[in-house]
Every structure is written in structure tokens, then in C-alpha cells.
Design a protein that fits this description.
Blueprint: H1 25-124, H2 135-143, E1 152-155, H3 160-163, E2 171-174, E3 183-187, E4 190-193, H4 196-210
Parallel strand pairs: 1-2
Antiparallel strand pairs: 1-3, 3-4
């Protein structure tokens, strides 16, 4: 039996127009499939559009957040630098003030110590002690020149008897230009100035050096 569709005489409407034929089952199935595919395409497009919008929002938020963080970090860095500059300036002012005050205190202390030392030295090597020849210092001065024989020791005439024991073998001479307690040792290698004023000056210089801050 042939599967060909039977031909049916089309019916005409009262107006004389041809009535549309009803779709077959296969046509309806194809139509439904096309509608479903169109719906799927629209849904897929909608989801893709939503995803793109969300991606754009997320990217924009991330970029905005990163930019905001960068701006905030830059601002904070500038604030830190400004604070550091203010701190450094304040520290330098305080340091200069402290150093100036410390120098002032050191100068006052050094001067006080020197004055005290000089007062003590004047007591130890004052006018009442000047006539006392420092025999031990004369001996050390002579020994500085070792085995040199040509040595001259000058003292005040009142100190000749005191210098005698430590100057045996050397020339001893009284010098009116020297004060009691003074001595000078002269040799070809040089001389030692043992005058009281010289010894006081050396001691004062040493004390000042020791008390310098």
C-alpha cells in the first residue's frame, strides 16, 4: 500500500478563499522544537549577558578597589614622610639644644675642676714650698740623658746643698735668675725645664685635658 498522502480537494470559504490546511504532527513537532531552541538561545543569551554584566561589575569593583587602595597607600605614605620630616626636625632641635647644654655644663665643670686643682696645687707647690727643691725630679731629669757625662744642673743658690747629692759627677751651678725650688738640666742632647712655673703650667694643662668632656 502506498504511503503517499491522499489528495484532498481543498475547501473554499464562502468568500471564495482557500482555507489554510492544518499542520501535521511532524510539522507541529518541528515548530515546537524550533520554539524550544529559540527559547534556549534567548535564555543562553540572557545568562551570557548577565554573566558579562557581573564580570564587568566585578572587574570594575576590583579595579576601583585597587585604585582606591593605591590612592590610600600613597596618601598614607605621604603622611608618614611628613611625620618623619617633622620628627627629624624636632629631634635635630632637641639634639642641638642638648649638645649646647651639655657643652655648657662640661665647660663649667672643667673650669671648676681646673680651679680646684690649681688651688690644691698652689697649696702643695705654693710660696712656702718653693724653696724645697724637688730632688727626685732633678734625679729623673738627669737620668733622662742616660750615659751623657757633660751635664749641667742649674738651681737657685739656696738649693745648691740640696742638689749636691743627686748631681755628683755632673756640674752644679747656682743661678740667681732662678727662684728657690727651680732647676734646669742642660746637656748636649737638650734640656729639662724644671722651674716651678713651668711645672705648674704642665700640671694645669694636664688637668684641663683630663677634665675636658
Amino acid at each position: 500500500m502506498s504511503s503517499a498522502r491522499a489528495w484532498v480537494i481543498p475547501q473554499l470559504s464562502p468568500t471564495g478563499r482557500r482555507e489554510p490546511e492544518e499542520p501535521t504532527g511532524s510539522e507541529l513537532a518541528l515548530l515546537d522544537e524550533a520554539v524550544e531552541q529559540a527559547r534556549d538561545i534567548r535564555e543562553t543569551a540572557r545568562r551570557e549577558a548577565a554573566r558579562e554584566r557581573q564580570t564587568a561589575r566585578t572587574r570594575g569593583y576590583a579595579e576601583g578597589l585597587a585604585a582606591g587602595r593605591a590612592d590610600a597607600l600613597e596618601t598614607y605614605q605621604r603622611e608618614l614622610e611628613q611625620r618623619e620630616e617633622r620628627f627629624r626636625a624636632n629631634f635635630e632641635v632637641l639634639q642641638e639644644s642638648a649638645e649646647a647644654r651639655w657643652k655648657e655644663l662640661c665647660d663649667e665643670l672643667s673650669q671648676s675642676v681646673v680651679e680646684l686643682a690649681q688651688a690644691m696645687m698652689a697649696k702643695l707647690v705654693g710660696p712656702e714650698h718653693m724653696a724645697n727643691l724637688p730632688v727626685s725630679e732633678v734625679r729623673r731629669a738627669v737620668e733622662l740623658f742616660g750615659d751623657v757625662d757633660d751635664i749641667l744642673v742649674k738651681v737657685h743658690p739656696l738649693s745648691l746643698n740640696l742638689a749636691g747629692p743627686v748631681t755628683r759627677g755632673f756640674r752644679l751651678e747656682g743661678d740667681e735668675n732662678l727662684d728657690p725650688g727651680d732647676f734646669i738640666v742642660v746637656s748636649p742632647r737638650g734640656q729639662v725645664d724644671g722651674r716651678v712655673v713651668t711645672r705648674q703650667a704642665r700640671l694645669a694643662a694636664w688637668l684641663e685635658d683630663q677634665t675636658t668632656c
